[in-house]
C-alpha cells in the first residue's frame, strides 16, 4: 500500500522544493533551527526536508509583528476584508494542488484534502462580509445628555497553534476572522505537516506583498513544542488559539492565563451517535460510517461511541458490519480510497496498544481490530461491542475505532452521551419531535455541537464550532465568534454641562 517515492508534480506548483525554509519572518523566508524530514504516512518515505525556526528567529518575527500591528489595526476593516478576499482567491487558484499536499502529508483522502482547503476559502468569503459588520451597540443612558455605546477594537496579535489532523482549515477558522478584526497573526503549524504550513503561507505572503503591506502582518513558524511554549508565554500575543489534546491544552491555558492572556481551546472529543427505535436506519448507517471512519477516525468530531436502542440494535449492527467490510483502505491520493493511513508510526502503535486495552476490558471485536502489514501506517476500521462502564470508553483513541452499546430509554442514552469528560459533538437519529427537543434542550446533550439526523462530523463554518468540558470551551468560525478576537470598550460620553452621577449619587 502506498506508492514508492515518485516526484509529486504539484509540490512545485505551490512553491515547495526538496529543501524548504520553515519561517516567514518579517516578510522574508528564513530559518536557522534543526532540519527535519517530513514523511508520507502511506509509506513512511521522506517527501522533503524543512529547516525549522530557532528561538532567535521567533524573536525577530515577533518584534516585526508587533510593529506591523500598529499599521494593520489602522487599516479600515472593509479594506482588511479586501485583503482577505484576495487571500481567498489565491487559495482558489491552487485548490487542487493544496488539497493534494494536505492528502500527501497528513494522509486524509484527496476529496477530504480538497474539502479542507475549500473550508479556508469559505472562511475568507465569510470574513469579507463580516469586515463590514463588526458592529457595536448603543445603550440607553440613565443620565440626561449622556450617550453610552460599545466599541470593538483589535486585540493586537493572535497566536494560532494548529494540529496535524486539520493542518490548514483550523488556521482559516482563526486567521480569516482575526485579520478582518484588525489583528496580526502568528501561526505555528503542526510539526509533522510543515509543507502545508509553508504552501499556505506562501500564498498569503504574495497577497501582502502585492498590496505593499508589511509581511509581518502574517508570521509563520514551523517548529516543535519550544516554539509553542514561546507563543504561550509571550505577553505580546493577546489571544492564543490552540488545537490539540486536552492535556497539552490545559498546560497552554495555564501558561497563557498566568500572564492574563486570552485562550481559545479546541481540545479532544469523544463523540456519540444515538439511534432511537424510530430512526431512519439507512440514513443512520450511512452517517455512522462517515462519522466513524472518515479521516481514518482522526477528526476531533469523529464518532467514537454508538448507542443503539435495544429494539434496532442487531439490525443496525448487521448493516454497519456489512458496509465496513466494503471500505477500501489504501493510498489517500488514489481514486476510490475511503480510508487512508493513520498520520504517524506513533499513531499506529497507539492503535495496537488501544486494541489490547479494549480486549483486556472485555471489549469484543466485531470488525477489524488489527494493523495492516505494509510500509505505511494503515489500520483496519474497527467495531467493538463493549460495556459503557469500561474505562477505555471514556478516553479518546485517535483512530477508526467505534464502541457499540445498547440502551432502553432516551434518558439513559443522554446520560451515557454526557458521561465522558469531553463535550464536543453529538448526534441523535429519530423522527419524533419530543425526542428532538429533549435532545437539544437543557436536559439533553451537554456538547457544543448537538445534531439531529446528521453525523457528528462535517460542521459548517456558519455556526460556532467548539465544545464544553475537557474540549476546552472555545468557539471558532461563525456566529459571533469574532468577538473573541476583539476587545470591547463601554464608552460613555457626556455632551451636556451638568455632572449627574449614575445610581443617583450626589457627591458634594
TrEMBL record:
Residues 34-489 form the Aldehyde dehydrogenase domain. The gene is LOC107423905. One of its GO terms (molecular function) is aldehyde dehydrogenase (NAD+) activity. It comes from Ziziphus jujuba. It is an enzyme of class 1 (oxidoreductase). Belongs to the aldehyde dehydrogenase family. Signal peptide: none annotated. Homotetramer. The active site is at 266. Keywords: NAD, Oxidoreductase. Its EC number is 1.2.1.3. Gene3D superfamilies: Aldehyde Dehydrogenase, Chain A, domain 1 (3.40.605.10), Aldehyde Dehydrogenase, Chain A, domain 2 (3.40.309.10). InterPro entries: Ald_DH/histidinol_DH (IPR016161), Ald_DH_C (IPR016163), Ald_DH_CS_GLU (IPR029510), Ald_DH_N (IPR016162), Aldehyde_DH_dom (IPR015590), ALDH7A1-like (IPR044638). It comes from the Eukaryota. This is aldehyde dehydrogenase (NAD(+)).
Amino acid at each position: 500500500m502506498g506508492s514508492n517515492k515518485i516526484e509529486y508534480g504539484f509540490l512545485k506548483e505551490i512553491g515547495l522544493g526538496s529543501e524548504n525554509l520553515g519561517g516567514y519572518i518579517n516578510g522574508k523566508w528564513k530559518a536557522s533551527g534543526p532540519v527535519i524530514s517530513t514523511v508520507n504516512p502511506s509509506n513512511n518515505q521522506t517527501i522533503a526536508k524543512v529547516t525549522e525556526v530557532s528561538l532567535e528567529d521567533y524573536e525577530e518575527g515577533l518584534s516585526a509583528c508587533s510593529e506591523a500591528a500598529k499599521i494593520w489595526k489602522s487599516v479600515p476593516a472593509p479594506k482588511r476584508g479586501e485583503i482577505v478576499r484576495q487571500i481567498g482567491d489565491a487559495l482558489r487558484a491552487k485548490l487542487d494542488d493544496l488539497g493534494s499536499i494536505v492528502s500527501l502529508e497528513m494522509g486524509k483522502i484527496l476529496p477530504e484534502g480538497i474539502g479542507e482547503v475549500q473550508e479556508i476559502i469559505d472562511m475568507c468569503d465569510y470574513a469579507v462580509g463580516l469586515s463590514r459588520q463588526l458592529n457595536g451597540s448603543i445603550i440607553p443612558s440613565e443620565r440626561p445628555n449622556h450617550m453610552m455605546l460599545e466599541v470593538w477594537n483589535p486585540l493586537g496579535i493572535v497566536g494560532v497553534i494548529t494540529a496535524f489532523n486539520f493542518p490548514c482549515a483550523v488556521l482559516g477558522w482563526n486567521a480569516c476572522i482575526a485579520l478582518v478584526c484588525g489583528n496580526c497573526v502568528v501561526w505555528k503549524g503542526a510539526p509533522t505537516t510543515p509543507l502545508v504550513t509553508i504552501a499556505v503561507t506562501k500564498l498569503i505572503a504574495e497577497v501582502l506583498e502585492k498590496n505593499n503591506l508589511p509581511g509581518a502582518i502574517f508570521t509563520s513558524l514551523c517548529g516543535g513544542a519550544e516554539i509553542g511554549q514561546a507563543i504561550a508565554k509571550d505577553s505580546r500575543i493577546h489571544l492564543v488559539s490552540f488545537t490539540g489534546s486536552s492535556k497539552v491544552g490545559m498546560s497552554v491555558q495555564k501558561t497563557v492565563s498566568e500572564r492574563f492572556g486570552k485562550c481559545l481551546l479546541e481540545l479532544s472529543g469523544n463523540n456519540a451517535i444515538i439511534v432511537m427505535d424510530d430512526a431512519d436506519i439507512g440514513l443512520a448507517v450511512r452517517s455512522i460510517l462517515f462519522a466513524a471512519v472518515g479521516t481514518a477516525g482522526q477528526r476531533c468530531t469523529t464518532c467514537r461511541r454508538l448507542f443503539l436502542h435495544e429494539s434496532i440494535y442487531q439490525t443496525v449492527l448487521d448493516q454497519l458490519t456489512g458496509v465496513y467490510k466494503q471500505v477500501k483502505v489504501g493510498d489517500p491520493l488514489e481514486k476510490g480510497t475511503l480510508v487512508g493511513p493513520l498520520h504517524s508510526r506513533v499513531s499506529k502503535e497507539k492503535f495496537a496498544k488501544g486494541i489490547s486495552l479494549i480486549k483486556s476490558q472485555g471489549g469484543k471485536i466485531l470488525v477489524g481490530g488489527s494493523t495492516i502489514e505494509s510500509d505505511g501506517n494503515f489500520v483496519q476500521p474497527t467495531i467493538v461491542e463493549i460495556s459503557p462502564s469500561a474505562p477505555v470508553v471514556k478516553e479518546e483513541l485517535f483512530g477508526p475505532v467505534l464502541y457499540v452499546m445498547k440502551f432502553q430509554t432516551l434518558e439513559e442514552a443522554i446520560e451515557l452521551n454526557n458521561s465522558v469528560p469531553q463535550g464536543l459533538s453529538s448526534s441523535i437519529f429519530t423522527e419524533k419531535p419530543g425526542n428532538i427537543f429533549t435532545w437539544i434542550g437543557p436536559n439533553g446533550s451537554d456538547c457544543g455541537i448537538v445534531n439531529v439526523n446528521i453525523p457528528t462530523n462535517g460542521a459548517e463554518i456558519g455556526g460556532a464550532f467548539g465544545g464544553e468540558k475537557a474540549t476546552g470551551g472555545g468557539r471558532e468560525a461563525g456566529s459571533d465568534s469574532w468577538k473573541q478576537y476583539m476587545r470591547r470598550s463601554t464608552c460613555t460620553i457626556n455632551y451636556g454641562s451638568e455632572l449627574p452621577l449614575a445610581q443617583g449619587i450626589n457627591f458634594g
